[in-house]
Design brief:
Number of strands of chain A: 22
Number of strands of chain B: 24
Radius of gyration of chain B: 22 Å
Helix content of chain B: 25-40%
Oligomer: heterodimer
Radius of gyration of chain A: 21 Å
Helix content of chain A: 10-25%
Number of helices of chain B: 12
Order of helices and strands of chain A: HHHEEEEEHHEEEEEEEEEEEEEEEEEHHH
Number of helices of chain A: 8
């Protein structure tokens, strides 16, 4: 195995890799081997790479990390009860990247009667390998992406959610990823497949139960077949010292609708790459995001919405609330391919700077190759409006309360778009708490 | 697409002809000797040669930028002749002394100089290939203390001023093409408006690339002292050649306290034929330094020509309350590629900038807006408003937007908006039922789309620009 990347981070991780159990499935072993090969050729991105221009991950290169040890956690179900979602009838819990069946909530071993197939990747693979093979590692391009390649090299446990043809799964599926060990790296993996005519809601939830340095390197792939609907919520509340890197790729089929809301609060450096491909006619997506950061945090969101076929619709609203000496980065690309006529796309990046030392770099980007389209984007950067503050103060609110209220309202616009009441409520509380703390 | 409009868009380049004037051309290639040759030919002082050599040294270490959204075969910098000048003649005092052949060229371009100078009150510093041959109205300007001459003349007549400002806004190693220009620039315009003087007329230069395969490396330096103001017009056309020609100009503007510089450009260089063959490569570095308090720099450009445009007129807003403006219309047709936009760097307190960019792409062309708005930590109360709109005509062209917004001060307010639109069947139908033909309708819609920019242009330019757009796009809609 060659390690060309020349960073302690990668070397230490790859040394730990031989402990990975090999899979009985040949194609899966080949996939991992290919990813390991690519690791040899790829380098850790630097700020000289356009895609990483504002996000300096060089501190990562000097970390010496171990792959997280499986099953060494003493976490009990009651310890994480406060993290449960009331609405979720199905919950998959992963502790430091490994599946924790005793903490999870599954109706059957891998399958429930309501037309879904939900469970841990290796178990489902051993029974229904072929149907998963054509989707796994097909959407997130790991060959040119170091972090995706690393995740694929460590591919073992992971969440698999399949909504069967013509079924609507009412209750959200909760995918909970918990880190408990400092100085480790974990590689969460999710694969969501919505078959024709199905509908499902998936909550990806990343939580840290430790304060130390750790690296979460997640990959999520979502496929929407024709006439399907996926609601995808992503909540990232990693530890304040954590590096959180995530790649998510979505392919949306004919007349299908993908809706996502991502909320990033944790991590010293967090990076979320979301690529949505509107692969067939009439596909729709709504992409919303909120980054709420302070201190010395850096939150970077890169999205790409690719209108590959005609009559697609996309809506995007991304907001950043930046306090302290934190740094928010947003890069939102919208591509309209030559034959994607009658595309309707709008994108908005709104940024609120609360501190003189706070910093934001935003780049809403349009690449249009078709003429019969409606595309608009906008970006604003500013502070709380003085008139609004004055108005609230004239109603008897103290300066601090008025500021909190306005900051909260700014963030709440995104959170309100989440359709799971308990999660919405919890996030609202968290935003309030954060604004109060600031 | 209607046949009438199709014909109009495919009109051949009207300004394609070659004037036969004896040229003094340097051998092809670039090396230290060529730079020394240019310097000797122009009888330059030692410091300027050092400036050139330093730039050349930097250029050797640099790499051609690969980030612009344009594609072209590699340029062989050794296949270019870096110096071409009409044979030296006596200095001229009036238009009558100018070579009649030259005058005919300008007439073909529709710029009768006497008329233009007399009627419009414009002083035209004529640049023909790389050396200034005639300067009008110079004496009139000299009365109020304005220096308006070619840069090579300024090097001899006002060495201290040139030395003080040259390369301060665009350093020799700023970028690949700026370094190249700094090493080999042959001529350009120098303009100095002393303290408190309002320039009594619009200053203007007509650029013209003439000798085949001679790259043109213009250098413009405009300085407005405290309380001075000036409006400068730059217009370009070039004859038709099939080999690509490189043009790498550098323009530097310096505005001191309360000074005001307005720089307007209409660029209509040869864009190549309908198959994308030939055309000018226009790789230009333009930057203004709003150095003083309350200073103002305003760029207005109408870019319709060149096979490839790579140009970002920028403002460095250093002085408190300084203002930067950028108004642009970029039109691409056939296989043209444009990657253009601006940079607004806010450094001083309460600095303000406005960006209005209109891109129109037709045919197989690609039109990119690339902009940067940077608010430094020191720029408290800074304000920016950007608007960039694109119009696509046909489904073979592309429109791209790359706006970088970097804010490091929380009292700043930055807004950016972008939209795309097309000329719809319904719009044309609406015009038609009011008795207005397609051709006129398209022209009206396009002029409406570009109105915000055109109204920033000086009168004569606005008229010219409106016509130019008409020529460029006729036939591509229907």
């Amino acid at each position: 195995m060659s390690v060309a990347a020349g960073s302690k981070y990668l070397e230490s991780l790859l040394q730990g890799r031989p402990r990975m159990p090999s899979s009985p499935l040949g194609w899966l072993n080949e996939l991992r081997a290919e990813a390991v090969d690519r690791l040899g050729a790829l380098k850790l991105p630097t700020t000289r790479d356009e895609e990483w221009r504002f996000t300096d991950i060089s501190p990562l290169a000097n970390l010496s990390l171990q792959p997280a040890r499986a099953g060494s956690s003493s976490l009990q179900a009651s310890d994480i009860a406060y993290l449960h979602l009331d609405e979720a009838a199905i919950r998959l819990v992963f502790v430091d990247g490994s599946f924790a069946p005793h903490l999870s909530l599954l109706p059957g071993p891998t399958e429930n009667s309501q037309g879904a197939m939900i469970g841990n990747l290796p178990i489902v693979l051993s029974r229904q390998g072929e149907s998963v093979e054509k989707h796994l590692a097909k959407q997130v391009e790991f060959r040119n992406n170091l972090f995706a390649a690393l995740n694929t090299a460590f591919l073992h446990d992971g969440a698999l959610v399949v909504a069967r043809r013509n079924t609507a799964i009412e209750n959200p599926v909760h995918l909970l990823f918990i880190t408990t060990q400092a100085e480790t790296a974990n590689h969460p993996r999710c694969l969501v497949i919505a078959e024709q005519g199905s509908a499902i809601t998936v909550v990806e939830d990343y939580v840290a139960l430790q304060e130390g340095v750790c690296v979460t390197n997640a990959v999520t792939e979502i496929f929407l077949a024709d006439n399907s609907e996926v609601n995808h919520v992503r909540v990232q509340r990693d530890s304040a010292e954590a590096f959180h890197i995530a790649n998510c790729a979505v392919s949306v089929g004919r007349s299908s609708r993908y809706r996502t809301t991502s909320v990033a609060m944790g991590g010293r450096i967090s990076r979320y790459d979301l690529n949505v491909l509107l692969a067939a006619e009439g596909a729709e997506c709504a992409v919303d995001g909120l980054a709420l950061i302070g201190g010395r945090q850096l939150a970077d969101t890169h999205t790409c919405i690719d209108h590959a076929r005609a009559n697609g619709t996309s809506r995007q609203l991304h907001k950043c609330i930046v306090d302290g000496a934190a740094h928010a980065v947003f890069n939102g690309k919208i591509v309209v391919r030559p034959n994607a006529q009658r595309t309707d796309s709008s994108q908005s990046s709104r940024n609120l700077l609360l501190n003189p030392r706070a910093r934001v770099d935003t780049k809403p980007q349009l690449e249009i190759f078709a003429d019969d389209v409606k595309c608009a984007h906008g970006a604003t950067v500013g502070q709380l409006d003085h008139e609004e503050l004055f108005y609230l103060k004239s109603r008897g609110l103290a300066e601090a309360t008025a500021r909190n209220l306005l900051t909260y309202a700014f963030g709440a616009e995104i959170i309100e778009r989440i359709r799971i009441a308990s999660l919405k409520h919890r996030l609202e509380e968290m935003v309030l708490e954060q604004t109060r703390k600031n | 697409m209607s046949a009438v409009l199709q014909n109009l868009v495919n009109q051949p380049y009207k300004h394609g002809f070659v004037t036969e004037i004896e040229s003094d051309v340097a051998p092809k290639g670039l090396n230290e000797d060529i730079i020394r040759l240019i310097s000797t030919k122009k009888n330059e002082p030692e410091w300027l040669l050092d400036f050139r050599l330093k730039a050349y040294e930097q250029w050797l270490k640099m790499e051609e930028p690969k980030w612009p959204n344009v594609r072209y075969p590699a340029i062989d910098f050794q296949a270019i002749s870096y110096y071409a000048a009409p044979k030296p003649k006596q200095k001229l005092n009036s238009m009558d002394e100018v070579d009649p052949e030259l005058l005919r060229t300008f007439e073909k371009l529709g710029v009768p100089m006497h008329e233009r100078a007399a009627l419009a009150g414009v002083a035209v510093d004529v640049i023909f290939d790389s050396v200034s041959v005639a300067t009008t109205y110079k004496q009139k300007l000299a009365e109020v203390g304005i220096i308006f001459c070619s840069i090579s003349e300024a090097v001899h007549a006002h060495p201290a001023l040139v030395k003080q400002y040259l390369g301060t806004v665009v350093p020799v190693g700023d970028n690949y093409y700026a370094a190249l220009n700094s090493a080999v620039f042959t001529d350009g315009t120098f303009c100095f408006i002393p303290k408190g003087v309002q320039c009594p007329m619009d200053l203007s230069t007509y650029f013209r690339i003439n000798t085949e395969e001679s790259g043109q490396f213009e250098r413009t330096l405009i300085i407005a002292e405290e309380g001075a103001s000036v409006s400068y017009l730059e217009g370009c056309t070039a004859p038709k050649f099939d080999t690509n020609e490189l043009h790498a100009a550098v323009v530097e503007l310096v505005a001191l306290d309360n000074a005001d510089i307005k720089y307007s450009t209409v660029q209509n260089w040869y864009a190549g034929d309908e198959n994308g063959l030939g055309g000018i490569y226009n790789f230009v570095t333009k930057r203004g330094l709003a150095k003083g308090t309350n200073s103002r720099i305003s760029w207005t450009q109408v870019e319709t020509g060149s096979a490839i445009t790579w140009k970002y007129p920028s403002c460095v807003l250093q002085g408190e309350n300084s203002v930067g403006e950028f108004y642009s219309v970029a039109v691409t047709n056939n296989y043209q590629q444009a990657d253009t936009g601006t940079k607004m760097v806010h450094i001083g307190k309460n600095t303000r900038s406005t960006i209005v960019s209109k891109g129109i792409s037709a045919g197989h062309s690609n039109n990119s807006y690339r902009g940067l708005v940077r608010i430094a930590p020191t720029a408290a109360g800074a304000r920016n408003y950007s608007q960039c709109d694109s119009m696509l005509i046909g489904d073979k062209c592309g429109a791209h937007t790359f706006p970088y917004i970097q804010v490091r001060n929380n009292s700043a307010k930055v807004e950016h908006e972008a939209s795309t639109s097309k000329i719809g069947e319904d719009q044309l139908f609406y015009f038609a039922q009011r008795g207005i033909g397609n051709e006129e309708a398209v022209s009206m819609i396009i002029n409406g789309f570009c109105k915000d920019v055109f109204q920033q242009l000086p009168m004569e330019f606005a008229v010219e620009a409106t016509k130019l757009l008409g020529f460029k796009l006729e036939g591509s809609v229907g």
